[in-house]
TrEMBL record:
<keyword id="KW-0035">Amyloplast</keyword>
<dbReference type="GO" id="GO:0004373">
    <property type="term" value="F:alpha-1,4-glucan glucosyltransferase (UDP-glucose donor) activity"/>
</dbReference>
<dbReference type="Pfam" id="PF08323">
    <property type="entry name" value="Glyco_transf_5"/>
</dbReference>
<dbReference type="GO" id="GO:0009501">
    <property type="term" value="C:amyloplast"/>
</dbReference>
<dbReference type="GO" id="GO:0019252">
    <property type="term" value="P:starch biosynthetic process"/>
</dbReference>
<keyword id="KW-0150">Chloroplast</keyword>
<comment type="pathway">
    <text>Glycan biosynthesis; starch biosynthesis.</text>
</comment>
<keyword id="KW-0328">Glycosyltransferase</keyword>
<dbReference type="GO" id="GO:0009960">
    <property type="term" value="P:endosperm development"/>
</dbReference>
<dbReference type="Pfam" id="PF00534">
    <property type="entry name" value="Glycos_transf_1"/>
</dbReference>
<dbReference type="InterPro" id="IPR001296">
    <property type="entry name" value="Glyco_trans_1"/>
</dbReference>
<dbReference type="InterPro" id="IPR011835">
    <property type="entry name" value="GS/SS"/>
</dbReference>
<keyword id="KW-0808">Transferase</keyword>
<keyword id="KW-0750">Starch biosynthesis</keyword>
<feature type="domain" description="Glycosyl transferase family 1">
    <location>
        <begin position="324"/>
        <end position="475"/>
    </location>
</feature>
<comment type="similarity">
    <text>Belongs to the glycosyltransferase 1 family. Bacterial/plant glycogen synthase subfamily.</text>
</comment>
<keyword id="KW-0809">Transit peptide</keyword>
Length: 521
């Protein structure tokens, strides 16, 4: 095979992604990155791929759908006490059919799922419409001259799309439709499950006998008052018990969701389906994250010529107003300022860390308390600490390239992308050994069987002492063992973090799904 030739799948399929977001149209986190990149990678391998998502119009996002054309297809969806009309828009880009479900409930100010006052109160209604529309799209939309048909693989992402496998089992297969289709549930973050009061079940338009698939009872300690029975419906639980295969976004997370600590109440159900539960680490978009071509960087570099990285570090130090010193380790943090990301540990560690000859830069927004702490810490350590409150994509690229060490002390991290970006840019990650961080960062071992091994440091348990130990070990390696440090950088840069690698693993999951009969007929 020619080096530039795209590897092709052995068996090509019709694949339908259903998601609440996909970059570049709408994105609030990692889910948008995955659903914006994985479909393109699968299409490049020969599959026919459709992505179904809402057409969000909030004023600022309208331009993202400028090239999507009206299909003139309308459907009536029977749910929530009436019949609701939705329409479809379509854009063909990068060999993928991007299908946008249009309804007035997707046209409002704010973010995708809420505004300054919290989550939208009708999110259950909005994503019920999405799931019904996604089931109809392969049957009625003539894209490129012909429909996708019934022999599809539905890839449903998180709770927003979790009603799809339930609808296939309850409303389509009993009438001979979609008997040859399969569904794969991809869990990006188990913390969000789409839980609403049990009284809303009749609104979903499902047969009464299917209530058990979505039934959810909160434990007594989680109920509001003594008369609260804790009865609810749980969209994600419905997909867990009806999907043919279940995938999490890393192998470590696939184990964590089966434990009481990481299962968010679904651990026993997920344990019962362990035979069809797998983990696949997300990829990264090499077009956006490539130190040899990145437009956000002042200098470019590669694994064969790292001189540009030192120049990027000097430029970053100048930009931040820090002393320009090549010999001092520059540590970076990029992410939300909240409890999950371990900001409280960084806050406790900073006084000890600032006694060292080190520089530290943080980029992020979130909890106002942590934002205020970043500002006050910067004024206390003017030559060592910088806190950039807010978020800027170009700045995040320059921090990733300019830092020597990237710190990620997350309490849980289903996959994590920043550590992949860091390794791609020759920045050594120091992470808490959890979820996808443990899977992707191999702790440095100078005495490996084949010489030096590892791409960073993964510490555990999550304590300030352990985190400081890992950082000090990394800093001493940076200062005193330059050849070892360069080896760490190069091993990280040569790792295969591409979406093509992940797409190949998804193909194996799809093959296993079609070997078996549908889990629920």
């Amino acid at each position: 095979m020619d080096a530039n030739e795209q590897p092709q799948a052995k068996i090509t399929r019709s694949i339908v992604f259903v998601t609440g977001e996909a970059a570049p149209y709408a994105k609030s986190g990692g889910l948008g990155d995955v659903c914006g990149s994985l479909p393109i990678a699968l299409a490049a391998r020969g599959h026919r791929v459709m992505v179904v998502m809402p057409r969000y119009l909030n004023g600022s996002s309208d331009k993202n759908y400028a090239k999507a054309l009206y299909t003139a297809k309308h459907i009536q969806i029977p749910c929530f006490g009436g019949s609701h009309e939705v329409t479809f828009f379509h854009e063909y880009r990068d060999n993928v059919d991007w299908v946008f479900v249009d309804h007035p409930s997707y046209h409002r100010p704010g973010s995708l799922y809420g505004d300054n006052f919290g989550a939208f109160g009708d999110n259950q209604f909005r994503y019920t419409l999405l799931c019904y529309a996604a089931c109809e799209a392969p049957l009625i939309l003539e894209l490129g001259g012909y429909i996708y048909g019934q022999n599809c693989m539905f890839v449903v992402n998180d709770w927003h799309a979790s009603l799809v496998p339930v609808l296939l089992a309850a409303k389509y297969r009993p009438y001979g439709v979609y008997r040859d289709s399969r569904s794969t549930l991809v869990i990006h973050n188990l913390a969000h499950q789409g839980v609403e009061p049990a009284s809303t079940y009749p609104d979903l338009g499902l047969p009464p006998e299917w209530y058990g698939a979505l039934e959810w009872v909160f434990p007594e300690w989680a109920r509001r008052h003594a008369l609260d029975k804790g009865e609810a419906v749980n969209f994600l639980k419905g997909a867990v018990v009806t999907a043919d295969r279940i995938v999490t976004v890393s192998q470590g997370y696939s184990w964590e969701v089966t434990t009481a600590e990481g299962g968010q109440g679904l651990n026993e159900l997920l344990s019962s389906r362990k035979s069809v539960l797998n983990g696949i680490v997300n990829g990264i978009d090499i077009n956006d994250w490539n130190p040899t071509t990145d437009k956000c960087l002042p200098h470019h570099y590669s694994v064969d010529d790292l001189s540009g990285k030192a120049k990027c570090k000097a430029e970053l130090q100048k930009e931040l107003g820090l002393p320009v010193r090549e010999d001092v380790p520059l540590i970076g943090f990029i992410g939300r300022l909240d409890y999950q990301k371990g900001i409280d540990l960084i806050k406790m560690a900073i006084p000890d860390l600032m006694r060292e000859d080190v520089q530290f830069v943080m980029l992020g927004s979130g909890d106002p308390v942590f934002e205020g702490w970043m500002r006050s810490t910067e004024s206390s350590y003017k030559d060592k600490f910088r806190g950039w409150v807010g978020f800027s994509v170009p700045v995040s690229h320059r921090i990733t390239a300019g830092c020597d060490i990237l710190l990620m002390p997350s309490r849980f991290e289903p996959c994590g992308l920043n550590q992949l970006y860091a390794m791609q840019y020759g920045t050594v990650p120091v992470v808490h050994g959890t979820g996808g961080l443990r899977d992707t960062v191999e702790t440095f071992n100078p005495f490996g069987a084949k010489g030096e091994e590892g791409t960073g440091w993964a510490f555990s348990p999550l304590t300030v002492d352990k985190m400081l130990w890992a950082l000090r070990t990394a800093m001493s390696t940076f200062r005193e063992h330059k050849p070892s440090w360069e080896g760490l950088m190069k091993r990280g840069m040569t790792k295969d973090h591409t979406w093509d690698h992940a797409a190949e693993q998804y193909e194996q999951i799809f093959e296993w799904a079609f070997v078996d009969q549908p889990y629920v007929m």
